[in-house]
Amino acid sequence: MLLEAEECQLVLVDYQTRLMPAIADGPAVLANAVRLARMAQALGVPTTATEQNPDKLGAIAAELASVLTETRAHVLPKMAFSACGDGLLETLHPTQRKPPQAGNARSLPKHLQKAVPESAPVRNTIVIAGVEAHICLLQTALELLDAQFEVWVVTDACGSRTERNRDAAYDRLAGNGAELVTTEMVAFEWLRSAEHPLFRQIQGLIK
Question: Whole-angstrom Cα distance, residue 83 to residue 25?
Answer without folding.
Answer: 24
